[in-house]
Amino acid sequence: MERTTSASTRSTGRSTARGMRPWLAAAAAAALSLPLLAVSVAGGTGAAADTGATAGTSACAYGYTSQATVWFGADVDSGVPNRETRDGCTVMDEIMADAPFATHGRFVRTVDSVTRDLVREQVLTSGERRDIIHAAAASRVGRPHPVTGTRSVDLSAIGLVGYTVRATMPTDAPGTLAALAACGFQNIEPSGGAGSFYGYSAAELAPLTEEVGMAVPSLGVSLSNLQNDLDLVISEAHAIGARYVRISGSSSWTLADYSRTASLLNEVGERLRAEGITVAYHNHGWEFETAEDGVTGYDVLVRETDPELVTMELDVYWAASVGVPATDLFQRYPGRFELLHLKDLAADGSFADVGEGTIDFAEIFAAAPLAGVRYGFTEHDQPSPDGVTSACTSIGNLAALRY
């Protein structure tokens, strides 16, 4: 499979820490209460108390952050600041108002029209408009991503979410990891909390994964870890070679809570980026069901986080379980999904091994370049007859998949 490396560098001199190989270049909730979101992080101010406080007072409440740039994917960052325009909106809000776009031409024409008006209104210079149009034209937005049935999955970018084998990892981690490696897994994403992954610290787990030839691109930690133990999170990631740390949210959050979380992720992301680590958010279904005026909690997280600092780890099962196809999200938010949780949805709504349910993984893999995917981790929340068998079935099906 053809591979390319893409890393965007902003005109401000801020460079991304995502120097890994993109994937497919060819082609349990932390029930945390709201007060926790105000805890300061590593001497910083924590999630901004004012974020979301003016929700509903602008035309683009919970819109794209003005702290980022006009950005259509990791390799097509215009470098132009995402300035505020009118009524609390930004350049990206104006451009992406009609997303997803049916064709690439329609997207570029929209960018051309919007930026022409913004030059007239002195929000953009002519040079900035030119840079934005150039980025739009180079992007994958609106382009077709057909399933040809001729491409195979790059298994070197496939891993397993450790939650699948949580029953055996605490008692026989070496044996579990050896069995996973034997059936083709080259990566694993341990789940737990900083300092304790199935009873191991990352430093203790590292030699076990190394012995069987498995890499650890990502660690699953808690939101509380980011708020209160960021130095430990960094230490754990470095100890095992993880380039991502991911967290989940709470089903009780309002849109204002998602906005505060986005602010926190941006702040933490700045610190982590200096350490070569990217923070990721892993969804369940409730992020798509919490909504106001057509804006969901997931929309808030994606729009209000800086793509240079924060990425999304899309769980395709949970999104599909509430009627949101992964490919629709890829079209709406190109380049924002560096990590995927690959879980299948059975016809009755339960979990299934990858390739045994109703989700069209060929379509997901075909559209992965648009999404910016680098790694996919298979997962089964209720594996049968056991975690290793379930995991091996999933990777076997991915090995046979042609997309």
Automatic annotation (TrEMBL):
Keywords tagged on the record: Carbohydrate metabolism, Isomerase, Signal
Keyword Chloroplast: no
GO molecular function: isomerase activity
SUPFAM superfamilies, sorted: Xylose isomerase-like
Domain of life of the organism encoding this protein: Bacteria
Residue ranges of every copy of the Xylose isomerase-like TIM barrel domain listed in the record: 177-367
PANTHER family: HYDROXYPYRUVATE ISOMERASE (PTHR12110), INOSOSE DEHYDRATASE (PTHR12110:SF41)
Full protein name: Sugar phosphate isomerase/epimerase
Naturally occurring in which organism (per UniProt): Promicromonospora iranensis
Source lineage: Bacteria, Bacillati, Actinomycetota, Actinomycetes, Micrococcales
